[in-house]
Amino acid sequence: MSNGAEFMRRELMIRFVRAFDKDNMADELDQIAVQLRPKTGNSSRCCVYHDRAVIKYRLMALLGISSEEEKDETKKLSEYFSELKIDPEENNKRAAQPLTVCSAGCSGCPESRYIVTGNCRGCFARPCQYNCPVGAISVFDQVSRIDYSKCIKCGKCAAVCPFNAIIKTTVPCEEACPVKAIKKNENGTAEIDFDKCIFCGKCFNACPFSAIMERSALFPVMTHLKDGVKMIAMVAPAAATQFPGTIEQLFTAISKLGFDNIMEVALGAELTTQNEAKEFKERMDKGEKLMTTSCCPSYIEFVNKHLPAFKKFVSDTPTPMAFAARLVKEKYPDVKTVFIGPCISKRVEASRTPEVDYVLNFEELGAMLAGRNIDVISQKPWQLPRPAIATARNFAKSCGVTQAVLTELMGANSDFKLKTKFMDGIDKKSLTMLKLYASGKIPVNFLEVMACKGGCVNGPSSLTKK
Amino acid sequence: MEKITLEICCGTTCYMLGAAPLLKMESLIPKEWKEDVDVSAVPCLGECLSNKLCNAPYVRINGKIMEKATVEKILDSIQKIIKEKQ
Lengths: 466, 86
Prior knowledge:
In chain A, 39% of the residues lie in helices and 13% in strands.
């Protein structure tokens, strides 16, 4: 376990699944907060009452309801629950905006700035003062002081201090966001600007108060399964390393949740590879200079919202998820498809892909298995009709797509000149980098972009991310 | 000396709530104790079925359940058993 915020999130998810399996889920929901934080127990925040308030919003998110939707603060979870309907249109609306900020949980971290700590010895050399380009530092009473009306937050003072006495305070969510989509609102708590957000989930993982939450699809998926609706689980390649045991054992475990059939999304990745290689060759034959991958939905959001001029370089080939869902719906048009992966923005992609009905992440899958007490390592292996090829299963790792396309092209045309580059994670410098690639100054014709460093295996909801 | 048995719960609840790093326990036991400890990953020990999810992950050392297990806690406990036996 890497931190307490993660623990709380997962524990609550497991409890949510267990509550669902009882006859009186509505009442159970109202009771969870008190059960988890009894008045005589420990609290994670100032007191158990604050914890309980936050738990309520977390449970709302697990029902798929965002904190921003709240109109009446006195409304109980059981009331929200009784109003819930399973409606594809409503579900798509939720999936299109999968993040929500719990303002009760947000600590409202003070604005990022440089501060002089008690380590300052008021030295004779005073490199902070001499190196400040705007003259913001002066020394009173043998201690350096920063004049914030002048400070430009360049950090030179911190870099030159021989005592490491100057440090930068940060706002973790703002620091993590690559596109300046998260800011404080007038109440001093974080707010996401969805016109800028690319749903990469970096804020979700960075917030030490776990105030940024995902709107879950657990409720509709579990309801359908309970009602006996035919559903097919489409499992992302990144699943291979998520649980103890083999991928075949995991598939058997998933089938025990009530899914009618399980499909490897890597089979879709095979089609993505073939089509992307063909498209790349056609584009190069036409004299185009650059093509980039299209399978990372956060990258697609990034281009659409922040560099629309770059769209022409992005491959038109559908993603492995889209291909996999097409394969399923061609064969079984009436089943519901559920993509299971490590990603937040796949929810957004699914909301625009008619063949994909729901998206669950690995934490939600783990919670369903844990809630029903299904162990992966105790399962018999699932009989795959045909295992996907290795390069397709490797899509979830850094450079996996490039390798697959490269192998495909080499088979077809051995003298093809592929000059590849890989953008390993989208960060604050990525916009500049993409502009540089677009200018043609860097010799590259095939660019793979993944919003998460290390690829999908390190996605925001991965259970094994580094 | 009879070997110390260390059973790490691999049930999905424990795995989700912190057992994942414990699965590497075998390689984290100091060389000099290696002969004395028998490490195994076992299916759900059943502890999480009570309402005490928040005490996961669980391990069992010589038949005794340890709550909220961490690598440090496990090593401490093994050391204690070895000392008692000597």
